[in-house]
């Protein structure tokens, strides 16, 4: 046994888990592409500045959680900690604003954050996400939320709750931010040290604290939704009307926050009781109408979400995928190895699944292995010809090697 193990916060994906991921990917692809979303893949690493400007200097992601790489030239690169800023960068770099708007994109990729590993939280993790860029219409907000709900339902996630909020726009949020900072300073002696340390950097994150005394203080804190201008309230109301029309239940949560600075207006999160009481978030997102400008581009509205693949699979109630049936198992005596190899290759070229003895077993051992994989046909190369056994109740035959494909072609 090797002394090496996977690093903390990472995990191998073994074949049985890979099959579950493949099924999730195919489910998402079917649902999202029917709604007009095309797949995008951005590089695993980007310039560090992309995340510093896009995600926000005051966020935990930028301050503590990014894996940075220094090139010999002094240029700093970062393993991507999230998917929205890279997609917006690609949108601007490749002139997607010239396409019919909104541009709808989806992705399933690996991301990296240097945070303490916990249940369903890894340093390398996979996320499924979408971005709809180029339209401020509340209907886009409702559509992206519905698509994540549809995917969760399709993979059998139960006990799902949708939390919904609005962060308004930066102008109105700035006034509220000053009010919230003053409130937090007035109750500083009752807050956790972590919250106190970032009052000026990111006061909204106080709502996300798990500290009991802090939560007691925040229960009486002023709420942003009570300070929003009518334009933002109307946008939020239309999103709710559309979700109600689609019969999607939700709860308005005036304390909902997320750990990235680029969010504006609609904010949402899906949770599942199947993941426990604390680390119960499946995924979420929101609108980010100021992100393009933060990255040096023109004003460009956008909205999207990301959902943790590991979390979705942990909450899924679907049974493990059924292994694909094997059409043909080829066994042979050593002197017939070349002919047996050719038959297996011919069968695969014809579109059949075929297994070939590769471990040097005796013919008896090969037949035991065939029984484990349960193929429709077993072809045994002997000096007299090929003994073709039909394991589905058909007739066993002794046939010439060059005719095996003829005998099985019409029945598979």
TrEMBL record:
Any one GO MF annotation of this record: histidine-tRNA ligase activity
Key words, A-Z: Aminoacyl-tRNA synthetase, ATP-binding, Cytoplasm, Ligase, Nucleotide-binding, Protein biosynthesis
UniProt KW Aminoacyl-tRNA synthetase keyword: yes
UniProt superkingdom: Bacteria
UniProt subcellular location: Cytoplasm
Catalytic activity: tRNA(His) + L-histidine + ATP = L-histidyl-tRNA(His) + AMP + diphosphate + H(+)
UniProt xrefs under InterPro entries: aa-tRNA-synth_II, aa-tRNA-synth_II/BPL/LPL, Anticodon-bd_dom_sf, His-tRNA-ligase, HisRS-like_core, HisRS/HisZ
Record-linked Gene3D superfamilies: Anticodon-binding domain, Bira Bifunctional Protein, Domain 2
PANTHER family: HISTIDINE--TRNA LIGASE, MITOCHONDRIAL-RELATED (PTHR43707:SF1), HISTIDYL-TRNA SYNTHETASE (PTHR43707)
Entry's family note: Belongs to the class-II aminoacyl-tRNA synthetase family.
Name of the protein in question: Histidine--tRNA ligase
């Amino acid at each position: 046994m090797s002394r090496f193990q996977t690093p903390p916060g990472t995990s191998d994906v073994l074949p049985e888990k890979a099959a579950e991921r493949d099924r999730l990917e195919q489910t998402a692809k079917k649902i999202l592409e029917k709604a007009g979303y095309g797949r995008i893949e951005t590089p695993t690493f980007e310039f560090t500045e992309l995340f510093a400007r896009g995600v926000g200097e005051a966020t935990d992601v930028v301050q503590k959680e990014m894996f940075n790489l220094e090139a010999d030239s002094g240029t700093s690169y970062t393993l991507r900690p999230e998917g929205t800023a890279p997609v917006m960068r690609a949108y601007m770099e490749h002139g997607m604003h010239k396409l019919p708007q909104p541009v709808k994109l989806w992705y399933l990729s690996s991301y990296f954050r240097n945070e303490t590993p916990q249940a369903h939280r890894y340093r390398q993790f996979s996320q499924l996400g979408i971005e709809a860029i180029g339209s401020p219409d509340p209907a886009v907000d409702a559509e992206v939320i519905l698509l994540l709900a549809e995917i969760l339902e399709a993979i059998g996630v139960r006990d799902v709750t949708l939390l919904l909020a609005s962060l308004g726009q930066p102008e109105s949020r700035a006034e509220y931010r000053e009010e919230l900072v003053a409130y937090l300073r007035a109750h500083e002696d009752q807050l956790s040290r972590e919250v106190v340390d970032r009052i000026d950097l990111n006061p909204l994150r106080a709502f996300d604290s798990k500290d009991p005394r802090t939560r007691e203080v925040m229960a009486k804190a002023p709420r942003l939704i009570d300070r929003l201008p009518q334009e933002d309230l109307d946008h939020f109301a239309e999103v709710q009307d559309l979700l109600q029309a689609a019969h999607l239940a939700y709860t308005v949560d005036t304390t909902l926050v997320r750990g990235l600075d680029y969010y504006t207006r609609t904010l949402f999160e899906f949770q599942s009781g199947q993941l426990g009481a604390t680390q119960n978030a499946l995924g979420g997102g929101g609108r980010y109408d100021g992100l393009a400008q933060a990255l040096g581009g023109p004003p460009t509205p956008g909205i999207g979400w990301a959902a943790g693949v590991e979390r979705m699979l942990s909450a899924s109630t679907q049974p493990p995928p059924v292994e694909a049936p094997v059409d043909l198992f080829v066994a042979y005596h050593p002197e017939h190895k070349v002919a047996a190899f050719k038959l297996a290759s011919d069968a695969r070229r014809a579109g059949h699944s075929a297994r070939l003895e590769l471990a040097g077993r005796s013919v008896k051992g090969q037949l035991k292995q065939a029984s484990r994989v349960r193929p429709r046909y077993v072809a045994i190369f002997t000096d007299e010809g090929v003994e073709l056994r039909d394991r589905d109740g058909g007739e066993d035959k002794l046939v010439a090697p060059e005719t095996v494909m003829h005998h099985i072609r019409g029945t598979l």
